[in-house]
Design a protein that fits this description.
The complex is a heterodimer of chains A (256) and B (376).
Chain A: H1 3-6, H2 33-46, E1 53-57, E2 72-75, H3 81-91, E3 96-102, H4 103-109, H5 111-120, E4 125-130, E5 133-134, E6 140-141, H6 160-163, H7 169-174, E7 179-186, H8 190-209, E8 213-219, H9 223-226, H10 230-244, E9 248-252
Parallel strand pairs in A: 1-2, 1-3, 3-4, 4-8, 7-8
Antiparallel strand pairs in A: 5-6, 7-9
Chain B: E1 4-8, H1 9-19, E2 24-27, H2 34-43, H3 45-48, E3 52-55, H4 59-71, E4 76-80, H5 82-97, E5 102-108, H6 124-128, E6 139-141, H7 146-163, E7 166-172, H8 173-177, E8 179-183, H9 193-200, E9 216-217, H10 224-244, E10 248-251, E11 258-261, H11 264-279, E12 284-289, E13 291-293, H12 297-303, E14 309-314, H13 321-328, E15 334-338, H14 347-358, E16 370-375
Parallel strand pairs in B: 2-3, 2-4, 4-5, 5-7, 6-7, 11-12, 11-14, 14-15
Antiparallel strand pairs in B: 1-8, 6-13, 10-12, 15-16
Helix pairs in contact in B: 1-2, 1-7, 4-5, 11-14, 12-13
The chains are: A alpha/beta (256), B alpha/beta (376).
């Protein structure tokens, strides 16, 4: 058997999503963003909704998300993605609208916008990548930074006395009646990734039910910001992030 | 015969929005302009034309809703008053940077800070010279009547889409609150989604179809060379606007020996003063800038050689005098009369000042409020 016997269409078990554009990503090696992008691209392709999707990219590491997934995009000001999404969804109720936001964007500067979009129960999907740090600006403290965690702005470790506690935004938002689906996932193993993808598919599908906002937190690593290898970062995340941000559904009223 | 009804300025804005085929209004309550949101809620256009009306959680959210709506090719507008507009300036900069069309109504009140809820024109610098960050301009229309509050809504949308830029209707609490007879605009249907794709499919994010590349609405370009080229393109657009869109009203300027320059409510007051002055034999004319960007420098420059003096009347500490002085260039004396903090200029005071200019007693004139001599 030589290689041409193996490379045959009938033997193909996996391929890069056709919606994932063929270009080099700017993310650091080991970063979770690339995997989350892949999941979103696959979801949109599998649901066959490319022509109906409008994505909103944030300010932060994923500001250039529009360079990687072959759909229409809008790039929002820092934290404001849910406000854009609200208007787009109201003006095009049959389109699929999602925001892609990090922890600084969503849980710090954009708390007002995300809380009110969820409270209105806007039929949008929110992908919230929580890596407990500001990646793009060089590793400063985020609202989700763990207590004791060292960052560029908490060089002696975050103390709740000066900087408050890690904010459990998914639990907070799940309290709002406008939220139909709130879940926390991760992409650190193939199994976790498959589960996360199921959640993303459910979240997009739930837009058609018009029952409210679907919110997915992805607990992620930032090995550059955490100053670890990708493997160390995954281990550290499981040991330290999961106890504070436990994976699993917080609320699911989709019926899907 | 066209319909004519008695309306407040703010109500006229709301009615005009519905009638010109606006797709969405997003706003936050603030005095003295809340009637715009209230009237739209009362009229409930969603059941009739399908226009969306939403009370946002803040001015910050409202302007970003505008960004989202404009980014997908819809006709969207918001309104606010001075402190609320300050909160919106970040978003206006992004909208200008992403080259999106939208309409923003600013019913000015006195400042700074929380200031007063009474009318003012003290945000001239903020609105005409930028407000937000970056080298951008917005088209600015300054209505002086309730009729113009109505008329300028559709005009603003036309200009916004023609140049893909935010257009600001800059008015004040008096024109927002006062009632006048208005001839309503003809009703125009909203664009269908198919029409939006046809008209704006080359830039609007309406969902990527196989026949085109994905549309990306953004104000970001990390490459300084490309960002500079983009900025140059923006500047060329603003230059084109300056060449093509200057609007002003000229009253009795043919034989004028003195000129008043005022916009909005101050122009209404000044027009009355001009009429009183003419009864006293003082030949006064009035230039009322209708667009504040682009500014009507040329007509002022043209009139300078024929007049003995120019009086600028504003409800501010003299912000517009800077633009007037660019046109006058110290060739004739330039006088200023302004009231601030919610106080209004009166025709009697303006008349008194015109008389004092003519007999050389301007500096000692017994008139309340600011008065400056820029050149004598």
């Amino acid at each position: 058997m030589n290689i041409s016997d193996i490379i045959k269409p009938e033997n193909k078990v996996y391929a890069k999503s056709r919606l994932l554009l063929d270009r080099e990503m700017h993310y650091c090696p080991g970063c979770s963003h690339g995997t989350v992008h892949k999941i979103i691209a696959e979801t949109i392709d599998e649901l066959n909704i490319q022509e109906q999707v409008i994505g909103i990219s944030p300010v932060g590491c994923a500001v250039l998300a529009y360079d990687y997934i072959d759909i229409d995009w809008q790039e929002a000001a820092h934290g404001r993605a849910p406000a854009l999404a609200t208007a787009i969804k109201r003006l095009y109720p049959e389109k699929y609208v999602f925001t892609y936001q990090g922890d600084g964007d969503l849980a710090s500067i954009g708390t007002g916008e995300i809380v009110h979009a969820c409270n209105r129960g806007d039929n949008i999907t929110v992908i919230f990548v929580n890596n407990a740090i500001y990646g793009m600006t060089g590793g400063q403290m985020a609202p989700t930074t763990l207590e004791g965690m060292k960052t560029a702005t908490t060089p002696r470790g975050r103390s709740h006395i000066s900087s408050g506690f890690p904010m459990k935004i998914t639990e907070m938002l799940a309290l709002l009646p406008g939220v139909v689906y709130a879940t926390r996932q991760s992409v650190d193993t193939p199994a976790a990734e498959r589960k996360a993808k199921k959640s993303v598919i459910k979240a997009f599908k739930s837009q058609k039910l018009k029952k409210g906002t679907s919110f997915i937190e992805i607990v992620s690593t930032c090995n550059s910001g955490w100053k670890m290898t990708p493997v160390e970062a995954n281990t550290w995340m499981r040991e330290n992030m999961f106890p504070v941000f436990p994976p699993g559904d917080v609320k699911d009223e989709t019926g899907l | 015969m066209a319909e004519k009804i008695l309306l407040k300025g703010n109500e006229a804005i709301a009615m005009a929005a519905i009638r010109c085929g606006c797709d969405g209004y997003f706003g936050y309550p603030i005095t003295p302009q809340s009637e715009i949101l209230e009237t739209l809620m009362e009229k409930d256009p969603e059941t009739d034309t399908g226009m969306i009306v939403l009370q946002a959680e803040s001015e910050v959210a409202a302007i970003n809703m505008l960004y989202g709506g404009a980014g997908c090719g819809k006709k969207v507008m918001t309104s606010s008053s001075s402190p609320g507009i300050s909160l919106m300036t970040e978003g206006i900069s992004y909208i200008a940077g992403a080259e999106l069309p939208c309409v923003i109504v600013d019913i000015m009140r006195g400042g700074p800070g929380l200031g007063t809820i009474q009318p003012a024109q003290s945000d001239y610098f903020q609105i005409t010279k930028g407000g937000g960050h970056g080298d951008y301009r917005t088209i600015i229309l300054a209505p002086a009547s309730v009729q113009e509050m109505n008329d300028f809504v559709e005009l603003s949308f036309d200009l916004a889409f023609k140049y893909k830029t935010p257009v600001i209707i800059l008015s004040d609490g008096v024109i927002g609150q006062m009632m006048e007879k208005v001839e309503l605009s003809p009703v125009k249907p909203r664009w269908t989604d198919e029409e939006i794709v046809k008209l704006h499919g080359d830039w609007a994010s309406t969902g990527k179809t196989p026949d085109r590349k994905r549309n990306i609405v953004t104000s970001l370009d990390l490459d300084p060379h490309r960002q500079e080229q983009f900025n140059l393109k923006l500047q060329e657009k603003y230059a084109e606007i300056e060449r093509s869109e200057v609007r002003y009203e000229s009253l009795l300027c043919e034989d004028a020996e003195y000129l008043i320059i005022a916009y909005g409510l101050s122009a209404r007051v000044s027009q009355k003063a001009m009429e009183l002055a003419r009864e006293e034999g003082i030949k006064v004319g009035l230039i009322r800038p209708v667009t504040l960007f682009p500014y009507p420098y040329e007509i002022i420059e043209k009139l300078v050689p024929q007049v003995k003096g120019i009086l600028v009347v504003e409800m501010s500490a003299g912000q517009m005098t800077e633009d007037v002085s660019l046109a006058v260039r110290r060739r004739v004396p330039l006088y200023f009369h302004g009231r601030t903090g919610g106080m209004l200029p009166s025709p009697e005071d303006v008349l008194k000042l015109l008389g004092s200019i003519e007999n050389g007693t301007f500096e000692s004139a017994d008139v309340q409020g600011h008065k400056k001599i820029w050149l004598r």
